[in-house]
Amino acid sequence: MPFTFRQAACALALAASLFPAGGAIAQQTAPAPFVPVLTAPAPFSFDLLADRAKALALAPFVPTPVEQPEVLERVDYDAHWRIRFRPEATVMAGSTPVQFFHLGTYFRQPVKMFVTKGDTARKVRYDTGFFDMPEDSPARMLTRGAGFAGFRLMRPDLTSDWISFLGAAYFRTDGALRQYGQSARALALDTGMPTPEEFPRFTEFYIGEAPDGRVVIHALMDGPRVAGAYRMVISNTEGQGQVMDIDSRLYFRAPVERLGVGPLTSMFWYSETNRYQATDWRPEVHDTDGLMLLTGAGEQIWRPLNNPARVVTSSFADDNPRGFGLVQRDRAFANYEDDGVFYDRRPAVWVEPTHGWGKGAVQLVEIPTDDEIYDNIVAFWNPADKPQAGSELAFGYRLHWVDQVPVPSDLARTVATRFAHGGVPGQPRPADLTKVVIDFEGPAVKGLGQQDGVTPEVSAPEGVEIVNPYTLPVVGTDRWRLIFDVRAPDGTDTVDLRAYLAKDGAPLTETWLGQLHPAQLHSYFR
User: Which DSSP category does 429 fall into?
Assistant: First the structure.
């Protein structure tokens, strides 16, 4: 069965339940002595790894074989949940503790693990002694060299992890507020296309310490159409989050129609924007609530996320973008009321190119969902030049896993977006009107009053009418509110809107880009 985007999302959700982030490590029995076995040192460098990736791409793709599938079939959810890494078996990569994930029915292809020191690497051999598991666990039937499913880096006291790599080329951190949420991955291929999405996977990891004391992770990636080498230098600062400097070298076996660089994967079910779609008691349920963009020209854009009735891909063309990210702006616990998974603490992730990416587009893929267990949002950079067989590409970028995006600005930012039935309260509501209400907050609008000449600037596609736009300060707050109605011709599938507040012709706010799906909205409002 081909691996799908939804299966990847389910695997991530399963991983979170099997290996709870931030939780204490269970220990079932008194530890027996165990010494991890590492092979003899071998020469290693990023250039050597890239050479291997290039050589792989010159040959036909060979999937990593699944050994002992009949045993892994029996390591199901319940059996996997009972397997726990033994703290005393922790492997040190420099000063960083490393622990491994066990193979199972949902993670069958093994990943090779190495620790590096200087210009050498040593392979870590799998042994059941790494894990506490029940005497009757089917995992005990695996041979000594079976391999691992992934790994995580631990805090010094070994009570919690702060970054994990598990499944395909996915990884995620717990951000500034120590709560896992959205994920990143190395590369996305044909996400949201009519053809099946392809999931290249990390097949080898090399974990060590950079000269400045940061963690450095090298990874070999392989898939049917592309092989690659990655170098990730990572810092974890308690209370501030993680920063990852990533360099990638990619070698293509075959053409790719939609290449996704720096892809982020998140979940959005409903927020104040589409509360009418909720079938749950909580006010909001989402890992992130918007896509933020900083264009090459310096324009700051906010695109609130949707839960559409069909798969929708939106493109934001640009030249050398300064950054983009899936962001959780709403940090008020009262807007979620969930003290189990703490959506208010989920990290925002900001992708910052470290050299020019040229022409292309940030693309946002939104997939319908009716539950929080599915990751249904993807954002990535899609270069204008499509890779062909034999293409070699390199991308450098920095990932910030934070609570607040590191983009200083005096402009007011969007803090709420609401859609409703248009018209005037107490009067008949026209069936073809949708009301849009946007709240902005920030230094540029703070202290301004109705008499200060703040103007609404709203635009829509040809044929779409903007009705009665106006703006006003929200009493008792530092916010300003923009309100208008939208009338679209019958049969209009999608309406892309653009809005901001201005004074004397100069923007006071970031640019709000909203997308309406009139038929979907009116099905709820009627």
Answer: P
pLDDT tens column, 217-249: 999 999 999 999 999 999 999 999 999 999 999
- The token pair that represents 521 in the structure block: 């909205």
Q: What is the pLDDT of residues 168-191, one digit of tens each?
A: 999 999 999 999 999 999 999 999
Q: Among 231, 107, 214, 72, which Cα is nearest to 153's?
A: 214
| Residues facing residue 468 across a β-bridge | none
Kindly give, in sequence order, each residue whose CB lies less than 8 Å from that of residue 73, ignoring residues fewer than 6 positions away: 105
CATH 2.60.40.10 holds for 413-525: yes
Residue 152, Cβ neighbours under 10 Å: how many?
21
What is the Cα–Cα distance from 158 to 153, expressed in whole angstroms? 9
**φ, ψ for residue 253 (rounded to 5)?**
-85, -30
CB 475 within 8 A of CB 481: no
CATH says 5-19+38-402 is which class?
Answer: mainly beta
The vertex-482 CA angle with 478 and 483, nearest 5°, equals 135
Burial grade of 136 (CB within 10 A; 0-12, 13-18, 19 or more): exposed
Q: Is the pLDDT of residue 27 over 50?
A: no
Write out the residue limits of the CATH 2.70.98.10 domain(s) in the chain.
5-19+38-402
Task: Round to whole Å and give the CA distance between 94 and 118.
Answer: 10
Mean predicted confidence (pLDDT) in 261-279:
96
Per the listing, tokens 């900083």 go with 294
Q: Which residues of 181-210 are buried (b: 16+ CB within 10 A; e: fewer)?
A: bbbbbbbbbbbbeeeebbbbbbbbbbbbbe
pLDDT given for residue 193 in this prediction? 94
The pLDDT of residue 2: 40
DSSP string of 218-273? EEEEE-SSEEEEEEEEEEEETTTEEEEEEEEEEEESS--SSEEEEEEEE-EEE-ST
Percent of the chain with pLDDT over 70: 94
Cβ(436)–Cβ(469) below 8 Å: no
User: What are the residue ranges of CATH 2.60.40.10 in the chain?
Assistant: 413-525
Distance CA 395, CA 98 (A): 27
- With a threshold of 0.70, does the pTM exceed it? yes
